[in-house]
Amino acid sequence: MEMIPSRSSSLTKFKSDKPKILFLGKPTHDGGEIQKNTDYFEIDILDAENRTEALAKIPHQLFTRGPYEGIVARTNVYPFDPFDEELFAPFMPRLKIVVTGQVGYNDFDVEWMTRQGVYFCNSKYATCEATAEMALFLIFAVLRNTSLGEQSLREGRWRGDLGLGRDPAGLTLGIIGMGKIGEKLAHKASTAFGMRVAYWNKSGRKVSTLQHWAHLTSEYYQCETLDELLGCSDVVSLHCPLTESTTKLMSDREFGKMKPGSFFINTSRGGLVDDSALIKALESGQICRAGLDVFGGEPDSICPYYRERADKVVVQPHMGGLTEASFRKASMECFANLRAFFETGRPLAPLNELPIGTESKALGFKKAPTTHEHRPSTSTPAPSSNLLVAANEPIPAK
């Protein structure tokens, strides 16, 4: 158990008045955001390495330091999932909000939280830039067959049986799920590398700033159907959440609709893809190569084919969002939602809407005093709404 002290000793007398927040797992690379927010929250850390240890420690944590109104889950890589009733029920009925530093939420039981009147917020912006860059890296890697080139050189064979690579300029990149990550990838791929971009949203949502190819060939084309996108794309990149309706979105039928010899990228969730169907498409040549940062059964039950076939698959161990800037942005976004909730009774960007009668009122959020006892420092956080905007902007390198 770890308690984060306030930045100002003069605030200790207000300690019991602050909302109590618990981090599940010791956060890393938060850029000092936790310390900056100790004037606003009483923050504890449950230092556990895995779900079993966390479940064992929670009762004692609640007895000695609880109750908690807010929980921050996974701003790191500790394997606490699933984030479900078993994990969160001990914190009820005082728990009002759960925030996470990740964008994916398939391992969170959002329906249960909604029934309990608990807001849930993922981090919609924090990892967008980094994940889009990982997708772009994988696109280049499959086009240039870099995994096989590296393997050949390490084995003492200069170039080996490597053929010519493909140039990205002029190829069509098909994006399945034109959300925040998809938009960033589209911008990078089109403006810097001359790729044409098509996209398809399951919801049918049109990105308002985009234009049809017929009007401006450097802009993006919205496909009416998934089949249309698959048929016109040289590279297909997945950027949608894993839900019941998107599980195995890419299977035999979908891979069969792609251009022969095209390329496939997945930086979203492994469960979106039918592994046997992808392997069949790779072996037949329907898909030339795949670039994968995510896998079904990760990390312990990844299909061996992906590890063994450097000639067919470029792999990364789910590193897309793991950058220093992303972790700091995730902390900023988590605290932005927490502060907004305790200021107004509603977070800035909740993923769920609560049933009538379960909404929380503002819980007496205590803002940092501005008396002579405590003068605001230059590191005092900006207003919550500004933090959410900042989380979507690049953070300069140190």
UniProtKB/TrEMBL annotation:
State where composition is biased (Polar residues).
377-387
Q: Where is it found, in Gene Ontology cellular component terms?
A: cytosol
Which GO molecular function terms does the record list?
Answer: glyoxylate reductase (NADPH) activity; hydroxypyruvate reductase [NAD(P)H] activity; NAD binding
Task: Tell me where in this chain the D-isomer specific 2-hydroxyacid dehydrogenase catalytic domain is found.
Answer: 31-352
Species name: Gnomoniopsis smithogilvyi
State what protein this is by name: Uncharacterized protein
Q: Which domain of life is it from?
A: Eukaryota
PANTHER family cross-referenced by the UniProt entry? 2-HYDROXYACID DEHYDROGENASE-RELATED, HYPOTHETICAL D-ISOMER SPECIFIC 2-HYDROXYACID DEHYDROGENASE (EUROFUNG)
